[in-house]
Amino acid sequence: MTMYTQPCTLTSGATVTITPWRLDEMAALAIDFQAVQDTLTATLRGQSAPLLPQRAMPVLVRVLRLSLTRPDDADLVMAPDLPAVLQAIWAVNGLGDYAKKALLQRLRADQWRAALLKPRTSP
Protein backbone atom coordinates (compact mmCIF):
# COMPACT_ATOMS: atom_id res chain seq x y z
CA MET A 1 0.00 0.00 0.00
CA THR A 2 1.44 3.37 -1.02
CA MET A 3 0.75 6.20 1.35
CA TYR A 4 0.86 9.85 0.36
CA THR A 5 3.70 11.56 2.17
CA GLN A 6 5.34 14.94 1.84
CA PRO A 7 8.95 15.86 2.53
CA CYS A 8 9.53 19.08 4.45
CA THR A 9 12.94 20.73 4.50
CA LEU A 10 13.76 22.37 7.80
CA THR A 11 15.80 25.52 8.35
CA SER A 12 18.74 23.34 9.42
CA GLY A 13 18.73 21.71 5.98
CA ALA A 14 17.45 18.39 7.34
CA THR A 15 14.38 16.91 5.70
CA VAL A 16 11.54 15.25 7.60
CA THR A 17 8.70 13.33 6.04
CA ILE A 18 5.09 14.13 6.91
CA THR A 19 2.61 11.28 6.69
CA PRO A 20 -1.21 11.26 6.96
CA TRP A 21 -2.87 10.43 10.23
CA ARG A 22 -4.47 7.00 10.46
CA LEU A 23 -8.10 6.82 11.51
CA ASP A 24 -7.26 5.00 14.75
CA GLU A 25 -4.72 7.71 15.59
CA MET A 26 -7.30 10.42 14.93
CA ALA A 27 -9.79 8.60 17.15
CA ALA A 28 -7.26 8.21 19.95
CA LEU A 29 -6.42 11.92 19.79
CA ALA A 30 -9.88 13.16 18.80
CA ILE A 31 -9.81 16.11 21.20
CA ASP A 32 -6.39 17.20 19.89
CA PHE A 33 -7.51 16.71 16.28
CA GLN A 34 -10.61 18.87 16.81
CA ALA A 35 -8.66 21.49 18.76
CA VAL A 36 -6.06 21.77 16.00
CA GLN A 37 -8.74 22.03 13.31
CA ASP A 38 -10.69 24.63 15.31
CA THR A 39 -7.53 26.61 16.05
CA LEU A 40 -6.37 26.62 12.43
CA THR A 41 -9.80 27.73 11.19
CA ALA A 42 -10.73 30.11 14.03
CA THR A 43 -10.03 33.28 12.07
CA LEU A 44 -12.18 32.01 9.18
CA ARG A 45 -15.06 31.65 11.63
CA GLY A 46 -14.42 35.04 13.23
CA GLN A 47 -13.63 33.42 16.57
CA SER A 48 -10.61 33.20 18.81
CA ALA A 49 -8.53 30.03 18.82
CA PRO A 50 -9.86 27.48 21.32
CA LEU A 51 -6.39 26.32 22.38
CA LEU A 52 -5.08 28.35 25.27
CA PRO A 53 -1.41 29.26 24.85
CA GLN A 54 -0.35 26.89 27.65
CA ARG A 55 -2.17 24.00 25.92
CA ALA A 56 -1.05 24.79 22.39
CA MET A 57 2.54 23.54 22.57
CA PRO A 58 1.83 20.07 24.04
CA VAL A 59 -0.91 19.54 21.43
CA LEU A 60 1.38 20.77 18.67
CA VAL A 61 4.13 18.37 19.75
CA ARG A 62 1.71 15.41 19.83
CA VAL A 63 0.35 16.30 16.38
CA LEU A 64 3.86 16.78 15.02
CA ARG A 65 5.11 13.42 16.33
CA LEU A 66 1.99 11.74 14.97
CA SER A 67 2.60 13.30 11.56
CA LEU A 68 6.24 12.32 11.11
CA THR A 69 7.22 9.00 9.56
CA ARG A 70 9.94 8.93 12.23
CA PRO A 71 8.51 10.53 15.41
CA ASP A 72 12.03 11.12 16.79
CA ASP A 73 12.57 13.59 13.93
CA ALA A 74 10.46 16.02 15.99
CA ASP A 75 13.70 16.81 17.82
CA LEU A 76 15.00 18.36 14.57
CA VAL A 77 12.09 20.80 14.25
CA MET A 78 12.72 24.36 15.45
CA ALA A 79 10.31 27.26 15.88
CA PRO A 80 11.02 28.76 12.42
CA ASP A 81 10.08 25.39 10.88
CA LEU A 82 6.56 25.33 12.31
CA PRO A 83 4.76 27.20 9.48
CA ALA A 84 6.14 24.86 6.80
CA VAL A 85 5.58 21.74 8.91
CA LEU A 86 2.00 22.76 9.76
CA GLN A 87 1.31 23.51 6.11
CA ALA A 88 2.60 20.04 5.15
CA ILE A 89 0.46 18.40 7.86
CA TRP A 90 -2.56 20.39 6.61
CA ALA A 91 -1.95 19.32 2.99
CA VAL A 92 -1.12 15.65 3.62
CA ASN A 93 -4.24 15.12 5.72
CA GLY A 94 -6.57 16.98 3.35
CA LEU A 95 -7.59 19.29 6.16
CA GLY A 96 -8.46 22.09 3.74
CA ASP A 97 -11.34 20.08 2.28
CA TYR A 98 -12.30 18.79 5.71
CA ALA A 99 -12.29 22.30 7.18
CA LYS A 100 -14.45 23.63 4.33
CA LYS A 101 -17.05 20.92 4.92
CA ALA A 102 -16.92 21.34 8.69
CA LEU A 103 -17.27 25.12 8.40
CA LEU A 104 -20.20 24.77 6.01
CA GLN A 105 -21.96 22.38 8.39
CA ARG A 106 -21.28 24.70 11.32
CA LEU A 107 -22.61 27.70 9.36
CA ARG A 108 -25.78 25.81 8.45
CA ALA A 109 -26.28 24.73 12.06
CA ASP A 110 -25.77 28.32 13.27
CA GLN A 111 -28.29 29.61 10.71
CA TRP A 112 -30.79 26.91 11.70
CA ARG A 113 -30.28 27.70 15.40
CA ALA A 114 -30.70 31.45 14.75
CA ALA A 115 -33.91 30.81 12.83
CA LEU A 116 -35.29 28.76 15.72
CA LEU A 117 -34.43 31.43 18.26
CA LYS A 118 -35.70 34.35 16.19
CA PRO A 119 -38.78 35.92 17.77
CA ARG A 120 -41.86 35.29 15.70
CA THR A 121 -44.09 38.21 14.82
CA SER A 122 -47.83 37.92 14.78
CA PRO A 123 -49.60 38.62 11.46
TrEMBL record:
Keywords associated with the record: Plasmid
Superkingdom of the source species: Bacteria
Protein name, as recorded: Uncharacterized protein
Organism: Deinococcus aquaticus
